[in-house]
Specification:
The chain has about 350 residues and is mainly β. It has one helix at about 190-195; strands spanning about 30-35, 40-55, 60-75, 100-120, 130-140, 165, 175-180, 200-210, 215, 215-220, 235, 255, 270, 275-285, 295-305, 315-320, 335-344. Strands 1, 2, 3, 4, 5, 6, 7, 8, 14, 15 and 17 form an eleven-stranded mixed β-sheet that branches. A two-stranded antiparallel ribbon has the order 9-13.
Length: about 350
């Protein structure tokens, strides 16, 4: 991890603080500031797509989509005035020792995104319609979020370049398949059996996606700097494990507390669980024999139909009892929904 010396900061204006109250050593109210190097954010978006149709019912699209965000807004959430790690009293080592925490609005974050996006579509007037979309992408940034969504979450607010890594929103692989199948086998049936069995439509959406990175942080102020986003040190062991499970998602022995120094663990070093969801639905329209303009529509929907656990990220705070363990899920278990609609 590359670190830079903190730039010299101007002294707090004496006129604003005529005296230090005798019963306290610092102003404890959190202050809000805006960077003097304010510039307007801007972004570039690039895309190019090639599409080809096979026969009359097959279409394939292959494209590149990318973007570059420069001077994106973020904020240092109450840690702009934190000192560098070290021993001794924290307050006296702050850049502004007469002030406590400062939240600084900044426009210095940068993002870059590259993706390969493909799409396959099969259209058929009867029986089957199928659409599949696959995206391989990589999103890199140097802050966790924009101003209103969490801020930079930087370990050292005066060295944002050391934060460059895969984004919290990076998701390398996403495959989504949607289909509609009008079951054809019973269309020729007549009488009551044909009315009950024929004309059913089977639909579904399959979503398979890899997980997103997340940060590893300290659960206590081991750096002795009133830091909010302190990261541990690496021990040299591999972070990944061969057989991941909810109780052992990554190698917790790869991290050790950063004592009185900035941690050298990179930002977002672990990728969380992916998503494997199957949503299904089955439906049929019953024409009313007494009036063709009247119909009864039945629909059954199954969300997460196979009841596959969709795990959330594991505990990421070194020092917690559940560090490295998954204790919750991102999505609900299987849900069933039935609907009946009468049209006239």
């Amino acid at each position: 991890m590359v670190t830079e010396p903190a730039p010299a900061l101007p002294a707090a204006p004496a006129g604003g603080f005529p005296y230090t109250p005798p019963d306290v050593h610092a102003i404890t109210t959190t202050l809000y500031g805006i960077s003097p190097n304010l510039v307007a954010p801007y972004s570039y978006i690039l895309n190019a797509t090639v599409s080809h149709q096979f026969k009359s019912s097959y279409t394939v699209d292959v494209g590149y989509v990318g973007s570059k965000g420069t001077q994106v807004d973020t904020s240092f959430r109450y840690n702009w005035n934190q000192p560098d790690p070290g021993p001794g009293d924290i307050q006296s080592r702050r850049p502004y020792p007469t002030l406590s925490r400062i939240r600084m609005q900044s426009y210095g974050s940068n993002t870059i995104y590259h993706s390969l996006q493909t799409r396959f579509e099969h259209r058929l007037s009867t029986q089957l319609n199928l659409t599949a979309a696959y995206t391989y992408s990589h999103l890199i940034d140097d802050s966790a979020n924009t101003t209103n969504d969490g801020g930079c979450q930087c370990q050292n607010p005066r060295n944002i370049r050391a934060e460059r890594a895969s984004s919290l929103f990076d998701q390398r692989h996403v495959l989504v398949v949607g289909y509609v199948w009008d079951i054809p086998y019973t269309k020729s049936w007549n009488g009551p059996a044909g009315a009950l069995v024929s004309g059913w439509s089977f639909q579904g959406i399959v979503t398979l996606a890899s997980g997103s990175p997340f940060d590893i942080q300290e659960s206590s102020d081991t750096q002795n700097n009133d830091g909010i986003y302190e990261r541990p040190n690496l021990t040299g062991e591999k972070i990944s494990v061969s057989n991941r499970s909810p109780n052992n998602w990554f190698n917790t022995n790869a991290f050790t507390p950063s004592i009185l120094v900035y941690g050298n663990s990179p930002r977002n070093p672990v990728v969380g669980p992916g998503k494997h969801e199957f949503d299904l639905s089955l439906g049929k329209i019953f024409k009313m024999p007494f009036n063709e303009n009247h119909s009864l529509q039945f629909r059954a929907e199954f969300f997460n139909a196979f009841n596959t656990p969709q795990f959330a990220n594991p505990d990421r705070f070194l020092g917690d009892g559940d560090f490295g363990k998954i204790t919750s899920t991102n999505l609900p278990n299987r849900e069933l929904q039935f609907g009946l609609k009468y049209k006239f």
